Amino acid sequence: MSDALEPIRQKIDALDHDLVRLLNERLGLAAEIGKVKRSSGGSIYASEREDKVLRKVCGLNEGPIKDEALKAIYREIMSAAIALEKATKIVYLGPEATNTHAAAIKKFGASIDYEGMGTIADLFTAVEKGEADYAVIPIENSTEGSVREALDNFVESDLKIVAQIYLEISHSLISNESLEGITKVYSKDQALAQCRHWLQRHLPHAQLIDASSTARAVEIAANEPGAAAVAGELAAQHHDVPVIAANIQDKSDNTTRFFVLGKKPAGAVGSGRDMSSFLISLGDQASSHSGALLKMLMPMAERGINLSKIESRPSKRRPWDYYFFVDVSGHYQDANMQEALSELSAFCPMVKWLGSYPVVN
Ligand SMILES: O=C(O)C(=O)C[C@]1(C(=O)O)C=C[C@@H](O)C=C1
């Protein structure tokens, strides 16, 4: 058998030789880009360029490698490029092994430095103060809705959304006990809510206890007799606690959307592949003028800018005064977007651009 393998392996060896040389040649060019960016103050991570690179290589692909595998390889190549251009630090909602950590790794790969932090406010502060280059925050879940703390932090901050990440969330029941021995289940409130029916059916008498994160819940379950945690498998592996039941979430298409925040805005991809987020306030008009909300949406709608999300949050300045968070199609620099924004600014006391970013990962 080895006789038959040998000549094929020799060809693989020759290709690996070329691949390593080509990879290093590519990284050498990234290092040159890094020099230019560092001297001009440009953003090291360029989500719009990564989107174009990934689409280009998938377009070139004639198989047998699957696009998903090719993208994973390129994720790591560009991760190494970022690290070479500048030592880059990403902060995420910690502790280690949370879903936000998993989302950050999915976007930035293995060559980057990561640090978990306790609150979403801490993440904003770390990037604002320059202690980290980018932050990854959870923004909304397909079953539980928006993460309010994330929205509220945008009001005061000048950070820009530079990318978004979608991660399919799968929860496991994690414990050193067998199912019969579990009397308490710890997790983050949203995760407990996402598994409500499964927990009612299989652990009707267990006490459900809120923890600061899913990863913290596993840490508690690792040490407390009778305790279990609801968390992702990354956390189970990280704390070396067995998975008792996998995929216990009530909805199979349970997805969380995350934002990547940085100091400098992302450029445009073009070809309808950009999205933008804004924070808009109508001031007193919202309660005193009929049709004010409709008027707020018209400048975009009339120009073919598609509204994909609108969410209101109390302004906390006066009762019944709201901020509106909107997600729309297109980039901030697009001519039709600029026209719509100048029309909006004429009657809205606040129209704040939160960032523009590629549509999907
Ligand atoms: O083109 C750039 O701006 C680069 O820095 C190079 C590169 C790449 O490796 O292709 C690396 C990191 C960026 O996020 C985007 C692309």
Report what the structure shows.
The chain is α/β, with parallel strands linked by helices and 361 residues long. It folds into four domains: 2-85, Chorismate mutase (Chorismate Mutase Domain, subunit A); 89-169 and 255-262, D-Maltodextrin-Binding Protein, domain 2 (3-Layer(aba) Sandwich), CATH 3.40.190.10; 172-245, D-Maltodextrin-Binding Protein, domain 2 (3-Layer(aba) Sandwich), CATH 3.40.190; 274-358, Alpha-Beta Plaits. The chain is 42% helix and 25% strand. The protein has 13 helices and 15 strands. Strands 1, 2, 3, 4, 5 and 11 form a six-stranded mixed beta sheet that branches. Strand 13 (307-314) and strand 14 form a beta hairpin. It starts with a helix and ends with a strand. The mean pLDDT is 93. The site of prephenic acid has 11 residues, from helix 1, helix 2 and helix 3. Prephenic acid (PRE) is lined by residues 30, 33, 45-46, 49-50, 53, 78, 81-82, 85.
Instruction: Estimate the global geometry from the Cα principal axes.
Output: globular
> What is the H/E order?
HHHEHEHEEHEEEHHEHEHEEEHHEEHE
| Total DSSP E strands | 15
Q: Using only CA atoms, what is the Rg?
A: 23 Å
SSE class: alpha/beta
What is the fold named in CATH at topology level of the largest domain?
Answer: D-Maltodextrin-Binding Protein, domain 2
Q: Helical region count?
A: 13
Low-pLDDT sequence parts: none
Range of strand content: 15-25%
CATH class of the largest domain: Alpha Beta
Average pLDDT, all residues:
93
Distance between the termini: 43 Å
Biggest sheet, in brief?
A: 6 strands, mixed
CATH homologous superfamily identity of the largest domain: Periplasmic binding protein-like II
Bound compounds: prephenic acid
Number of domains: 4
In the CATH classification, which architecture of the largest domain applies? 3-Layer(aba) Sandwich
The amount of helix comes to 40-55%
